[in-house]
Backbone:
């Protein structure tokens, strides 16, 4: 009679995060700053993406000590990242009581062929997607929430914009198609037909889609909301800035009031230096995290 | 037609607007204080109560919301229920303090413990699908509060005068009976005010 881990409960959890900001944190102190600044959830990590990029080598699930520390520090939901296809990292984090798992390209993939079968888990998953085919495949595997991949740890919004525009444009295209065109579109996109059919009927994705990967300023966050994001993940952008607390608060407010440009001007005054950032064209192909996963 | 606002600082706003419209009311989102004008009632949606409270404080929404609630009906779900409670377990201060009750946050556990269950809601009906997500529950109510639903010995819905609250998320289902109940409350109150 009492059912846990249902689609409604897993997707509903993400619905409650809408209009909010989810922040990457690496310890209890940062988690408390994020919560006090109005974050709707925190992502517990060993290193933020910019530092993962700098450190090189293999990036894995965070040390459970850090995850536990963050779980105990805040009352808002705690998310954590597992490597793509790493069933055991995901199960370990689930067993610790993490509220949401990110099967993330920010970490080094553990499986180059298969993503996790996320339907097997009670804990809900968020996954990255660059286009509607990738988004539909992840939903097909049981993802309860999506985010753009962007290009993590760069402080450069251009890739997140590309991915959000791509997905929104493809949703509009699919919505306008006749049903007899849909199977061919499913084949071309590599998307499960039934999920594409649902997207066509509803005119939107069946799960929420956040922006992620390159958000560095309040204006970046507002831009992604304008383009149709349901909310925003900020990774390196907050705790790699000169004044994390001010940045965090300003990004939260800009996300809520993304069309109030006078307010965003006010919020952006005297924030100090944003994270330095990287021009995408200077990244070697192997350093592009968004190419991980399929 | 009754016009009902949904507080849109953060959370599941679209679902409530849809449920209110399906229940025969006009529904609008409320992001600024002046948008409270001309409303007959207000819904405070689910979301993260700490995040909503910070935005309420930032935009000095607290007093206008309290003033609105003195005369107009308010319905809170999950985080909205927490914002309406007079007392929050383990915290020295509460938020809008509209309903004489003590609530506990995340009282059913973390996300992996989130669940769906069939509820009986007094005055609303049987077999209402309750979606509980990191949900709170009501530990104790004052004598003026009417308990509407109990799940496993825990109070999960209540009413005090023109205030209604639920620990679960009726907006995430296609069952609009609880929203219809609230729209009816708003319509009755509107008649009294007129």
Residues:
């Amino acid at each position: 009679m009492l059912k846990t881990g249902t689609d409604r409960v897993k997707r509903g959890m993400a619905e409650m995060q809408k209009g909010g900001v989810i922040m990457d944190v690496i310890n209890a102190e940062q988690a408390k700053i994020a919560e006090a600044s109005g974050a709707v959830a925190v992502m517990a990590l060993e290193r933020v993406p910019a530092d993962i990029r700098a450190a090189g080598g293999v990036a894995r699930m965070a040390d459970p000590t850090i995850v536990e520390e963050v779980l105990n520090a805040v009352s808002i939901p705690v998310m954590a990242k597992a490597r793509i296809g790493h069933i055991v990292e995901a199960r370990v984090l689930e067993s610790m009581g993490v509220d949401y798992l990110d099967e993330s390209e920010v970490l080094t993939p553990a499986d180059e062929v298969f993503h996790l079968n996320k339907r097997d888990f009670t804990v809900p998953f968020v996954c990255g997607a660059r286009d509607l085919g990738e988004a539909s495949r992840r939903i097909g595997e049981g993802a309860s929430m999506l985010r753009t991949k962007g290009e993590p740890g760069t402080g450069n919004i251009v890739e997140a914009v590309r991915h959000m525009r791509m997905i929104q444009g493809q949703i509009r295209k699919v919505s306008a198609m006749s049903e007899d065109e849909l199977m061919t579109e499913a084949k071309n996109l590599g998307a499960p037909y039934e999920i594409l059919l649902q997207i066509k009927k509803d005119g939107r994705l069946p799960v929420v889609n956040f922006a992620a990967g390159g958000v560095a300023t309040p204006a970046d966050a507002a831009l992604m909301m304008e383009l149709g994001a349901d909310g925003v993940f900020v990774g390196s952008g907050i705790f790699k800035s000169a004044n994390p607390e001010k940045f965090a608060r300003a990004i939260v407010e800009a996300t809520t009031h993304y069309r109030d440009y006078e307010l965003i001007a006010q919020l952006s005054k005297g924030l100090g230096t944003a994270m330095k950032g990287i021009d995408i064209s200077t990244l070697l192909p192997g350093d592009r995290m968004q190419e991980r996963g399929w | 037609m009754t016009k009902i606002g949904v507080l849109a600082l953060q959370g599941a706003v679209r679902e409530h607007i849809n449920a209110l419209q399906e229940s025969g009311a006009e529904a609008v989102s409320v992001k600024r204080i002046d948008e409270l004008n001309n409303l007959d009632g207000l819904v405070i949606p689910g979301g993260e109560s700490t995040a909503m409270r910070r935005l309420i404080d930032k935009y000095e929404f607290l007093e206008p919301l309290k003033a609105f609630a003195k005369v107009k009906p308010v319905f809170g779900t999950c985080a909205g229920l927490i914002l309406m409670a007079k007392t929050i377990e383990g915290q020295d201060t509460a938020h809008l303090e509209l309903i004489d009750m003590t609530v506990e946050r995340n009282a059913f556990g973390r996300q992996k413990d989130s669940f769906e269950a069939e509820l009986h809601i007094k005055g609303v009906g049987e077999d209402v699908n309750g979606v509980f997500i990191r949900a709170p529950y009501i530990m104790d109510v004052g004598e003026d509060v009417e308990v509407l639903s109990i799940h496993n010995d825990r109070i999960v819905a209540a009413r005090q005068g023109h205030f209604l609250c639920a620990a679960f998320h009726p907006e995430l289902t296609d069952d609009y009976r609880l929203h219809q109940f609230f729209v009816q409350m708003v319509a009755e109150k509107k008649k009294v005010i007129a």
Q: What stands out?
A: Chain B is about 25% helix and 35% strand. Residues 108 and 135 of chain B are 6 Å apart (CA to CA). The mean pLDDT of chain B is 96.
